[in-house]
Amino acid sequence: MCINRQRLRQAGVSLVELIVAIVIIGVCVAGVLSVYTQAVRGSADPMIDKQALAIAEALLEEVQLAPFTFCDPADPAAETAANVGDCTIALQAGARPFDHVLKYNGLALNPASAMDGFVPAAGYSASVAVVAAALNGVGGGDAVQITVTVTAPNAAVYTLEGWRTRYAPNAVP
């Protein structure tokens, strides 16, 4: 019985070819799985980002909507003052929501909460800074820059900035 040697060589895959194919396929699968793992790991982060941003936006809006008059609204000269020097009492902090933009300066909330005390999500903290700044020629204390900083449970920090001008300095709420 005579066996054709050329036919035996073409009968299958050698062990070396099989190992090379397994290595190549393994590297490809590992690459795809690493990308998939990163995508799955980051899929919860948008919720944290959105919650932190919602807290920051709500707090910034609250501050921007507060009156920005020359005097404390409780001051008898609030409706007639021509400048800050005409006020008879200094700004006095009260309960939130405050009745003047500058009263929000230094506000720290841990946990971050709404005006009514509702805590939208645990683990978030927030702070507010209100400083006088010039804005397109509006200066002399008639414009303030508001910075709201929110820290998420994963220690990520989100900052929003806004502006408020004194356009109705004698309007008492």
Strands ordered across the widest β-sheet:
1-2-3-4
Total number of domains = 2
Counting DSSP H or I runs of 4 or more residues, the number of helices is: 3
Mean pLDDT: 84
Query: Low-confidence parts lasting 5 or more residues at pLDDT below 50?
Result: none
How much of the polypeptide forms β-strand, as a percent range?
Answer: 15-25%
Query: Which class best fits the helix and strand makeup?
Result: alpha+beta
Helix content: 25-40%
- According to DSSP, the number of beta strands is 4
Distance between the termini: 111 Å
The biggest beta sheet is recorded as:
4 strands, antiparallel
So what's the overall shape? rod-shaped
Radius of gyration: 32 Å
Q: What is the chain-wise order of helices and strands?
A: HHHEEEE
Concise structural overview:
This protein is an alpha+beta fold. The chain is built from 3 helices and 4 strands; from the N terminus they run αααββββ. The chain has a 4-stranded antiparallel beta sheet, with helices on one face.
What labels describe this entry?
173 residues, 16% strand, rod-shaped
Question: What does it look like?
Answer:
This protein is α+β, with helices and mostly antiparallel strands and 173 residues long. The protein folds into two domains: 5-42; 46-165, no CATH class. It is 31% helix and 16% strand. The protein is built from three helices and four strands. It has helices spanning 5-9, 15-41, 45-65; strands spanning 108-109, 125-132, 143-151, 157-165. Strands 1-2-3-4 form a four-stranded antiparallel sheet, with helices on one face. Strand 3 and strand 4 form a beta hairpin. The N and C termini lie far apart (111 Å).
